[in-house]
Amino acid sequence: MDVAALYDEGLGIRGVAEEIGCCYSAARRQLLAAGVKLRESGGRPLEPDPLAEYLAGRYRRGESLRALEAATGYKYGFIRTRVLAAGVELRDQQGRPRKAAR
After folding, report:
1. Could you tell me if 20 and 11 are in contact, meaning their C-beta atoms sit under 8 angstroms apart?
2. Whole-Å CA distances, 31 to 42, 65, 87
3. 60: Cβ–Cβ under 8 A, 6 or more apart, which residues?
4. Interval 47-80: pLDDT, tens
5. CB 1 within 8 A of CB 19
6. How confident is the model at residue 81 (pLDDT cuts 50, 70, 90)?
């Protein structure tokens, strides 16, 4: 597989590692060996897509991130990132909007 193409498509180093079946450090070494200029930590911002909107809609209707994880099979962090990309304000464990960091 072309690690550079995977990275250019928007996958992070961990995503590339998962795709090619190796660990993070091995994927990073392969990317550097392929001449890829690594993005700064945090990567590029995600644009909302149909999956993000679908997950966000379910979250807005009251499902928790953990419930979405169990129902969809997607990892918690993936769901959280997609829901945030769709512009959703996350709730705390009691269902209230989270307070902004001071």
Report:
1. no
2. 17, 32, 31
3. 88
4. 778 999 999 999 999 999 999 999 999 999 889 9
5. yes
6. confident
